[in-house]
Amino acid sequence: MSDLPSFSLTPRQHRAMTHLGNALVPGGDGMPSYAEVDAARHAGRALGAARAADRDALLLLVQILGVVPAPLLRGGLILTNLLGRLPGMPGAPARLLDIGLRGLVLNTYYAGLDRDGTDGRSAVHQAMDFALQCEPPKGNTRP
To answer: Which of 2, 13, 76, 127 has the most Cβ atoms closer than 10 angstroms to its Cβ?
Structure first.
């Protein structure tokens, strides 16, 4: 049992999160899509430690973006990323928006919490051929 705070998404928030996730992580070239690994199911865990006001604001934005048609959503995300490259204050709101949305999506996708791979590992990690392995250096005699 984990002592990390958790938060449950409503079915509507889950659908919206999956829609946003698929816009950012559509899959391809051997990588599963955001929806294929159902990474949105881990969004509550990622948002659990956030301040309630920040979490509610981000989820409201995700719900609004959840009804935007996919091509328009992808275009808006590209535009947000481009506007974020403006120096100083003009680009700051776009940078914050980009970090908030991408951070939530990419955190839940690459965290490796799904166990949908054929070998029982994360399907995302399996597709990347990622395996974390820690071994002491050869010749290390310290206990």
So the answer is: 13
Residues with Cβ within 8 Å of residue 23, at least 6 apart in sequence: 70, 73, 74, 77
Evaluate whether 123 touches 116 at the Cβ level (below 8 Å). Answer: yes
- Cα-to-chain-centroid distance, residue 63: 15
Q: What is the pLDDT of residue 106?
A: 96
pLDDT tens figures, 3-36: 667 778 999 999 999 999 999 999 999 999 999 9
108 touches 21 (CB < 8 A) = yes
Bridge partners, residue 31, by sequence: 28
Phi-psi domain of 140 (left: phi exceeds 0; alpha: psi -120 through 50; beta: other): beta
For residue range 76-114, list pLDDT tens digits in order: 999 999 999 999 999 999 999 999 999 999 999 999 888
Q: Classify residue 106 as exposed, middle or buried by CB count within 10 Å of its CB (0-12, 13-18, 19+).
A: middle
SS3 content of the chain, % helix, strand, coil (to 5): 55, 0, 45
Residues 86 and 94: their CA atoms lie apart, in Å, by 9
